[in-house]
Design a protein that fits this description.
By secondary structure, the chain is an alpha/beta fold. The chain is built from 13 helices and 14 strands. The strands form four sheets. A seven-stranded parallel beta sheet has the order 3-2-1-4-5-6-12, sandwiched between helices. A three-stranded mixed beta sheet has the order 8-7-11. Strand 1, helix 1 and strand 2 form a beta-alpha-beta unit.
């Protein structure tokens, strides 16, 4: 099939291009810069330089590509480290999830695209129950509200879009080589003990290797059901009290500093305390059952160790 990937050089974009091409699809990928367009070309896809917030450019790109499927992976999170001001850090991504989604959906309908798959998130967005049919958190900390609103907007727009088979994939917290939880910036923060263990560290996180996220996205092209949402996470959610000390050990750091919740609220904010102490994990049972997908990295323990070991070997070479 002809696949149009918006945001083709992001965390999932690059492994997704590779997976789509390996599956025999013809791929067009968007980026905002000429330098990254060359990366797309070298991978075997057709690059298009277009800003996801430029409606005429997106419309022209989709019309020219004539795709069967559009996959929306648009975010703007490269280099984001200041999570104390969460909604400010996510401001452009929130626009991409609202305005950008509208522009892409309009272009898809005009071009007669059959299927539209969009990236969402299931890290801190859930109420205590964790399946797709359960509600998102309708009362998150203030600093998270605009970002949650944008996620909800995207999900509603995609799954209810007329004349399109809209599917939403809620990815867990990303990791991979120099990506997400294992980015150089994050590892450096852990090594400097700047990521404290707040309170009891009881917040349960769901992770996903970017290659597994890409594989699930390819599966959704063929087997996803229109109007459905799927959690794309590994098999072993873990409390912060487990994964953060384990990550510190893997990267050769001392154990994280422990901070009481009241102090965390003063210096980090209620939203980061919530992420460390209250958030709930997600189940991948529906994606396994309906998409015929299973993660090649079923546990973050294996995945983290593999990525850190690979990075260490590459650095030594």
């Amino acid at each position: 099939m002809r696949i149009f990937v918006a945001g083709a050089t992001g965390a999932v974009g690059r492994p997704l291009l590779a997976a789509l091409i390996a599956a025999g699809h013809s791929v067009v990928g968007t980026t905002r810069t000429a330098a990254k367009a060359e990366i797309i070309r070298r991978m075997g896809a057709e690059p298009v330089i277009a800003d996801g917030l430029d409606a005429p450019a997106i419309r022209a790109a989709v019309r020219a590509a004539k795709p069967d499927v559009i996959i929306d992976e648009m975010t703007d999170l490269a280099g984001v480290t200041d999570l104390r001001h969460f909604d400010r850090a996510f401001a452009t991504t929130n626009r991409l999830r609202t305005q950008g989604t509208d522009f892409l959906l309009a272009a898809a309908r005009e071009a007669g695209v059959k299927r539209f798959i969009a990236q969402s998130f299931c890290g801190w967005t859930y109420e205590p129950i964790k399946a797709e049919a359960d509600p998102l958190d309708f009362n998150p900390p203030e600093e998270l509200r605009r970002t949650l609103d944008a996620i909800q907007y995207l999900e509603d727009a995609v799954t209810s879009s007329a004349n399109l088979e809209g599917i939403v994939l809620r990815y867990g917290s990303f990791y991979g080589p120099d990506t997400g939880m294992l980015s150089r910036a994050m590892i450096e923060q852990v090594r400097r003990r700047r990521v404290p263990l707040i309170g009891g560290g009881g917040g349960r996180w769901s992770f996903i290797h970017v290659d597994d996220a890409a594989a699930a996205t390819v599966a959704a092209i063929e087997r996803g059901t229109s109007g459905e949402i799927y959690n794309i996470v590994d098999d072993e959610p873990a409390p912060v009290s487990e994964w953060l000390p384990a990550l510190a050990t893997l990267v050769g750091a001392r154990p994280p500093i422990r901070v009481p919740a009241w102090l965390g609220r003063l210096f980090a904010g209620e939203h980061l305390v919530s992420m460390m102490t209250d958030v709930q994990a997600s189940s991948n049972a529906k994606a396994r059952r309906e998409l015929g997908w299973q993660p090649a990295h079923p546990s973050w323990r294996q995945g983290f160790a593999e990525v850190v070991s690979g990075a260490t070997a590459q650095h030594a070479a």
